[in-house]
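does this look right to u?? iron/sulfur cluster version
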Amino acid sequence: MSMSKPEDILNRIYDQALPEPADLEQALSWDKPQELERLFNFADTVRKEYCGDGIIPRGIIEFSNFCDKECSYCGLNKNNRKLGRYRMKAEEVLKSAGHLFSCGIRTVVLQSGEDPGSDVSWLAEMIKQIKSQFALSITLCVGERPFQDYRRWKDAGADRYLLKIETSDKELYRQMHPGMSFEQRIGCLDALRESGYQVGSGNIVGLPGQSRESLARDILFFKQNNFDMIGIGPFIAHQETRLAGQPKGQALLTLKVLALARIATRNAHLPATTALGSLGEDYRQEGLKCGANVLMPNFTPLPYRKLYEIYPDKKCVNEPVGACNFCMEQMAKQINRFIDYTKGDSLKFKGVTLNV
Ligand code: SF4
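got this back:
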């Protein structure tokens, strides 16, 4: 492994069309205060240059927690029979969209498990209704679907789609996703891009069996695919999964991955994820200081919000809907930033697309 100075390593990661995995691995291993300070300051400088000081809010509505998949890390997996399941009515989704719009937010994220009962036409109609009533961008996060469904929803007016790869390590992916296929996941990401969506992906940091090398490959995967948005969050074990009792992903490691993703991808939208706020302490502000430029407040109505339990002790499940604005404003002010109440489209369209 190279014995370069931290500055040299960070400059190479920033400059190279495709960074060396060894550089990324070395940066991920840093734990001395000076090394970490250099890494986080470098990422913060890149964030400022490419994304500015605005923090873009995306309001989430978790409209169904039914799922027919068995992801090993997720409390919504179909084998969790203790979880009360819900599917919001169209009027409830519209009301929640209206609420977040009235709070000044201009992107709604419609999220669900891979719900076999969620009809393609129902969601297409939902998208049309939201678009006709509110000047909102719509991000969908509803998993792997037939490609014609993606096109149908795009035609209905959806703008963006979030489909995390979770890990780019094929063997680890196989272990974490019984009955699913890595190739199928990649096929979906390609189909989404071809359908004209702004596409987001992301990973989980600290999965049991995940190596530093594997995390370095995740960052390369993000760079190679030039994603518009990348969600990076720590693993938090759910008691009703086969990974129950496994240690949580570390906040520091998650922040390092986030910082390196910022340096490597430069202008991707990177949220300070809710999971980063759910590690006992709230590390979202730390995330905003080392590369993140997005927050994702939750606008799922309270009776349902508690039931969207991907992992336990999720941040903000008991906050009244709308409390997020005050919280976000405070968080931004404390670090001399501001909440950017615009749609926050992909920055890849602004002529800073990387040559990868
Ligand atoms: S991660 Fe998504 S697809 Fe997997 S079990 Fe959870 S909700 Fe279902």
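The longest helix spans residues 33-51. idk if thats expected tbh
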